[in-house]
Amino acid sequence: MSLRSIEGQSVQADAIIRLIRQERLPHALAITGIAGVGKAAAAVALSMALNCLEPVDYDGCGRCSSCTKILRNRHLDVFVVWPDPPKKKREKLLKDDPELLMRHRDILKSPWPQDDDLSIKIDTVREIIRTVAIKPFEGRYRVMVLPEADLMTEDAANALLKVLEEPPRNNVFVLTAGKIENLLPTIASRCRHIRFGPLAAGIVRAGIEDVTDEEASVIANLSGGSLKRAREIAKTGFLAARRDAVAAVNEAGDLAGKRLFQSADELGKGFVGGLDAILWWLRDVMVLKATGNESRVVNSDIADLTADAAERFDLEELFEIFGFLDRLQQGIRFANIGERLAALVALLVFAGRLKPWEALGYGQLWIR
Question: Would you say residue 226 lies in a domain?
């Protein structure tokens, strides 16, 4: 692995290498962009370039002892500081698996379960400060990589700010985040900002395994340029669930009585994810209705369902339905609306038996 090998980010990689060559590399970089576009990989590749024993035009060779140690997560001067769980949860995980951290080898992957309660805490930043106060042990530079630095607590961010204001020599900080605005403004102002763009569809397609070519193309379109998102879609069976959900709402007008309730019962299983799929598809329907351009349809494998819906609804109705479903999804997530009830209401709206504004009116106590 090297900076130049980061796919889809050649301009950004060249900019970093140019800073190294010109000896103008700042003490702190902030690499931003959506998940799955190579931010953490670039940060680690930068640490290799700075410490490589046999650099190739100011880039890491990927083969020397320094580069291989970094890739194996065993270099004494390269640290990747991932957000971790709350103290009690962390202690339980380590009690259940005492060798969890020692066994961890993949420098580009967090050792912790990916839950919603991860953060970079002030104790972690204090340890970073103590570490950078000492000269590097075996490399020319000590590199501190903080993936998802936007998950720092406020106390941690303020503590890190102090070391960024007066950085020790031969220490480089690389922070990654979704957006530069997600970082504390005073931290962002002390970092050189490099933005990574979404990956081209061809790069995403090539990085997906165990799917057909057609599925890979659809997944690449749905991923928004994120290889991480694309792999999640491929692994979770999202495409099949999406087709079932879209087919259910598209056929709602033909259902009545017991069959309608049965369809709602089936659709209501995991309806939050189903709504994600339906909203993605509705964007296609609106685009097709407004432009008539089939080439702009993302869900190309269900183009027949998209064309059918575009014929049945006018654009104003589609916007109303989209807004209603978006509010309905919020209600499920934040107001404890039952998913099966939500699925039934969605089917009634698509069937034309309930107007979106009527559905919002009936549910005004739980959709706000």
Answer: no
* Partner residues linked to 56 by β-bridges: 59
Tell whether 218 is covered by a domain: no
- Residue that is written with structure tokens 């961010």 in the block: 157
Give, in order, the Cα–Cα distances in Å from 314 to each of 84, 249, 309, 349, 350. Answer: 48, 16, 9, 14, 12
Q: Do 119 and 247 sit in the same domain of this protein?
A: no
Instruction: Supply the range of the domain harboring residue 303.
Output: 237-362
All residues at 6 or more sequence positions from 213 whose CB lies less than 8 Å from its CB, including other chains? none
Q: Kindly state whether residues 41 and 186 are assigned to the same domain.
A: yes
For the stretch 188-233, pLDDT in tens is 999 999 999 999 989 999 888 888 888 888 888 888 899 998 988 8
254 with 181, same domain: the answer is: no
CB 245, CB 303: distance < 8 Å = no
Which is nearest to 246 in space by CA: 315, 304, 317, 316?
A: 304
What is the DSSP code (8-state) at residue 335? S
Contact 53, 46 (CB under 8 A): no
CB contact at 8 A, 197 and 181: no
Q: What's the CA gap between 268 and 338, in Å, rounded?
A: 8
- Total domains in the chain come to 2
Q: Is residue 232 part of a domain?
A: no
Alpha-carbon distance of 310 to 287, in angstroms, equals: 9
| Strand, coil or helix: 248 | helix
- The CA distance from 140 to 126, in Å, is 23
Whether the pTM exceeds 0.85: the reply is: no
What is the CATH number for 165? 3.40.50.300
Q: How far apart are CA 185 and CA 196, in angstroms?
A: 19
59-73, 92-106, 215-229: least confident range: 92-106
Q: What is the pLDDT of residues 319-347, one digit of tens each?
A: 888 888 888 878 777 767 777 788 888 88
68: in domain: yes
Q: Are 140 and 108 in contact (CB under 8 A)?
A: no
**Residue finishing a domain among 197, 226, 254:** 197
Q: Are residues 135 and 282 in the same domain?
A: no
Domain of 324: which CATH number?
A: 1.20.272
